[in-house]
């Protein structure tokens, strides 16, 4: 797998351990997060006990973050 080169506008970073993919966001997203090149799986948010809305469409995973206030 080849990672893209981040620049000052990059807001999503990825890492994985085994079959788990982790997405690190530098800013809480206002729009759904889109991840390409993944297969169907479970989506969770670290430290959040509720469910996360996600859907696969056209080879992309769309993740809608819950409404949270700091």
Structural account:
There is one protein chain. The chain is mainly β and 70 residues long. A three-stranded antiparallel β-sheet has the order 3-5-4, with no helix packed on it. A two-stranded antiparallel ribbon has the order 1-2.
Number of strands: 5
- Which shape, going by the Cα principal axes? globular
**SSE-based structural type:** mainly beta
List the uncertain runs.
none
Q: Helicity range of the residues?
A: under 10%
List keywords for this structure.
70 residues, mainly beta, two-stranded antiparallel ribbon, 0% helix, globular
Q: How would you sum up this structure in a few lines?
A:
The chain is mainly β.
Q: Which SSEs are present, and which pair or pack?
A:
Elements: E1 12-17, E2 20-25, E3 33-36, E4 53-57, E5 60-64
Antiparallel strand pairs: 1-2, 3-5, 4-5
């Amino acid at each position: 797998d080849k990672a893209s080169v981040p620049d000052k506008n990059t807001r999503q970073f990825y890492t994985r351990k085994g079959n788990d993919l982790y997405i690190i966001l530098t800013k809480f997203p206002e729009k759904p997060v889109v991840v390409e090149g993944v297969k169907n799986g479970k989506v969770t948010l670290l430290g959040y006990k509720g469910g996360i809305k996600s859907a696969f469409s056209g080879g992309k995973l769309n993740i809608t973050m819950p409404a949270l206030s700091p």
